[in-house]
């Protein structure tokens, strides 16, 4: 009898494990979903000009008082559309500080995701008398940002994002 009970318990164990798995896995998946991330976003777009001309390749950043910022890159016509994290379109409603900076140029290598590290050619290094190589950079590597700091590092630009569509145009002056 003892032997029979032991066999019955051993046979029931795999069923218990499977039942437990079938109940646990959906709960874990629910916890990993974005369902609890109910952030309300409002669409934001506009045009950025400098001295009356479209500002190409600039990044417009809207930073709320609380929460994550949204950003967008201007196209050749100066148009931008804000994107929140996870590629969601829009910005959190409420007051925002605005920063406008020059974006680094997009290179074809950045868009390729080959998983292979980029190799820097040896001739980009200059010799050093201490034996540590120094990187030779082009003269224009650290050129001044053409967007004045009053629009970026010392920006006082502010906008209120409201529910519904928002269109904010920025007319920057270089001087």
TrEMBL record:
Residues 137-158 have a biased composition (Basic and acidic residues). Residues 130-158 are annotated as: Disordered. This is Carboxypeptidase regulatory-like domain-containing protein.
């Amino acid at each position: 009898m003892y032997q029979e009970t032991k066999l019955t318990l051993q046979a029931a164990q795999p069923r218990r494990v499977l039942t437990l798995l079938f109940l646990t896995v959906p709960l874990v998946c629910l916890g990993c979903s974005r369902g609890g991330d109910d952030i309300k976003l409002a669409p934001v777009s506009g045009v950025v000009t400098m001295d009356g001309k479209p500002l190409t390749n600039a990044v417009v950043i809207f930073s709320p008082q609380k929460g994550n910022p949204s950003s967008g890159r201007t196209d050749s016509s100066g148009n931008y559309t804000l994107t929140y994290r996870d590629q969601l379109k829009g910005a959190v409603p409420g007051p925002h500080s605005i920063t406008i900076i020059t974006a680094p140029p997009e290179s074809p290598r950045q868009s390729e995701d080959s998983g292979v590290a980029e190799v820097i050619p040896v001739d980009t290094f200059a010799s050093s008398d201490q034996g540590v190589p120094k990187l030779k950079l082009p003269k224009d590597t650290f050129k001044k940002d053409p967007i004045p700091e009053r629009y970026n590092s010392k920006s006082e630009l502010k906008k209120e994002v409201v529910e519904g569509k928002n269109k904010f145009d920025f007319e920057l002056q270089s001087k």
